[in-house]
């Protein structure tokens, strides 16, 4: 097919299950991920309806629709829950002989990274409980459906102006099964953003499961008080060192079987480190129930790490102040807050392609204080 023929073919092709992207009008760019751009847009027919459009990156046109995007779509179509981002449809924009696809989601006003980087956003204890309860509810649901998220981090947690939390970004998610009759799974361990990556992945485990997401939940929970990621390693080795310094030395005593992981003898594991999770988080966290739950989420041995069901039954969620509605607090902030539109959360840590799409409110430039835990 020559270019002209191809142009005609694509223009006339009726993509099944795809609606025309021109029914939406872009309003602002709100995200730049590894896998493409995300826009806020409104529906032309119903200008009160806002959506988020995530562009599907066509890395290798010859191979057709990218398999990674197909996987994300399949998983999103399966997951329907109040605490999981809702995929409305796939839309298609034809522009000459190029076809661009978008994943269209219900719009959420904020992401947690954006909220935490704004010093004017203050969560009280009941509100923090509500965030964590919804996050664990979402994890409970996806894990019950045999899906691993594999990219837990504050930027992938969305919050609507009504205070409803939605797990987002299923770009790295996959289905899992419990390995049966002795045949171990062989999943890739090159997943999860380094700062939120659990020790089993850093040590080369390929037969992991839901506990990888609960480690991330623990990192995010601590961040609700510290306001910046608690372990910011630059390399996998450094990340393991930071983990050992907080959670204690990685040994066969605390984690029987760890010696069988591929990288156990290849990485440098600090010795004689005491576990200091409670001690180091207490000055920020204060609440003893919160410290106890954090201590159980940040457990080195994944088989001993608390699961979402037990975490939801933890006293933290069932003692005063009880989890409380977030909408009142959020109503004080009329501007959307996203990681992309916030200033970098760490000195010297620049995100690539950081074009300013939405005007930053002035308080963010002056009032933001970088606090590395
Ligand atoms: N439904 C939505 N409503 C509002 N904002 C959204 C929505 N979906 C995504 N975003 C914003 O866009 C950002 C990037 O989206 P997402 O995480 O899905 O893409 P990604 O390309 O996989 O990102 P990365 O690779 O950086 O994790 C999110 O962090 C969030 O700020
Ligand atoms: Mg993301």
Automatic annotation (TrEMBL):
Domain of life: Eukaryota
Region (Disordered) location: 347-373
Matches recorded under InterPro entries: CDK, Kinase-like_dom_sf, Prot_kinase_dom, Protein_kinase_ATP_BS, Ser/Thr_kinase_AS
Reaction it catalyzes: L-seryl-[protein] + ATP = O-phospho-L-seryl-[protein] + ADP + H(+); L-threonyl-[protein] + ATP = O-phospho-L-threonyl-[protein] + ADP + H(+)
PROSITE patterns: PROTEIN_KINASE_ATP, PROTEIN_KINASE_DOM, PROTEIN_KINASE_ST
Cellular compartments annotated: Nucleus
UniProt GO cellular component terms: nucleus
Residues engaged in binding ATP: 54
Biased composition (Basic residues): 347-357
Molecular function GO terms recorded: ATP binding; cyclin-dependent protein serine/threonine kinase activity; RNA polymerase II CTD heptapeptide repeat kinase activity
Family in the record: Belongs to the protein kinase superfamily. CMGC Ser/Thr protein kinase family. CDC2/CDKX subfamily.
Annotated PANTHER family: CELL DIVISION PROTEIN KINASE, CYCLIN-DEPENDENT KINASE 9
Name under which the protein is recorded: Cyclin-dependent kinase 9
Protein species of origin: Frankliniella fusca
